[in-house]
Design brief:
By secondary structure, the protein is α+β, with helices and mostly antiparallel strands. The protein has one domain: Phenylalanyl-trna Synthetase, Chain B, domain 3 (Phenylalanyl-tRNA Synthetase, Chain B, domain 3), CATH 3.50.40. Helices cover 33% and strands 20% of the residues. The chain has six helices and ten strands, in the order E-H-E-H-H-H-H-E-E-E-E-E-E-E-H-E. The strands form three sheets. The protein has a four-stranded mixed sheet. A hairpin with a 3-residue loop joins strand 5 and strand 6. Helix 2 runs parallel beside helix 5 and helix 5 packs antiparallel against helix 6.
């Protein structure tokens, strides 16, 4: 069971927010040539349709930037990952190759413009009792706003000032913001359970669900470890 809650402080500042989460057993790999063929094809088409100026007007990106300002953060200094990935591709730079599961989440983020948290579900606290299977964990995650001085280790970024950023917290502390997820719960080649959260600050539940469905499809094609047993919340 995964209980994902939206705090009153987020509801007050970002009343439009909608989210979707995907939980899945996964088989992560270092690289998938078939996935990258799809990523390269998608990026080539993307560069024909958008510029670094026009993407600011994408509802999903514009709404996330607005959410940052409402929560107290400058989105130009702390770019949401969805926008940062799109900008990187439109500038002619290649996407980072991390691992198959991370790469497919990045593809979904570019495709829909949403910042997507990708977590190793087995690293989220509280942990299951020793005799419990990973899928039987009772986990509680709350979306709130970062506080001054709150410790947070961004993936590949070191200590990150998350004051004024939307942040998901487990029993220990922050695990994910739209700018960067936390080192503590990051995905690795040893990860066997994924929790991916699509953050829709634009309030478009149809697109948020479509993005979650796209992630499920990519997981089945490139990282399925359990015959398609993927559950969307």
């Amino acid at each position: 069971m995964i209980d994902i809650r939206v705090s009153p402080e987020i509801r007050e500042r970002c009343p439009e927010f909608v989210g979707a989460a995907v939980f899945a057993p996964i088989r992560n790999t270092d690289f998938s040539e078939a996935l990258w063929q799809q990523i390269d094809s998608f990026i080539a088409d993307y560069r024909q349709r958008y510029t670094t100026d026009s993407i600011k007007l994408m509802p999903s990106i514009e709404a996330t930037r607005t959410a940052y300002r409402r929560c107290g953060k400058d989105p130009s200094r702390y770019r949401p990952s969805g926008e940062a990935l799109v900008r990187r591709t439109l500038k002619g730079n290649d996407l980072y190759r991390v691992s198959t599961v991370v790469d497919l989440i990045n593809l979904a983020s570019i495709a829909y413009g949403y910042s997507i948290g990708g977590f190793d579900a087995d690293k989220i606290c509280p942990a299951a009792a020793p005799d419990e299977a990973p899928e039987q964990k009772n986990l509680s995650i709350t979306l709130g706003i970062g506080r001054e001085g709150e410790p947070y280790e961004g993936i590949g970024r070191g200590p990150l000032n998350i004051a004024g950023l939307p942040v998901y917290r487990d029993a220990i502390g922050g695990i994910g913001t739209p700018t960067s997820d936390n080192e503590r719960t990051k995905l690795s080649l040893d990860s066997t359970h994924l929790l991916a959260i699509v953050n829709g600050y634009d309030g478009n539940s149809t697109n948020v669900r479509a993005c979650a469905a796209f992630i499920q499809d990519l997981l089945r094609r490139f990282a399925d470890s359990d015959g398609g047993r993927i559950i969307e919340f």
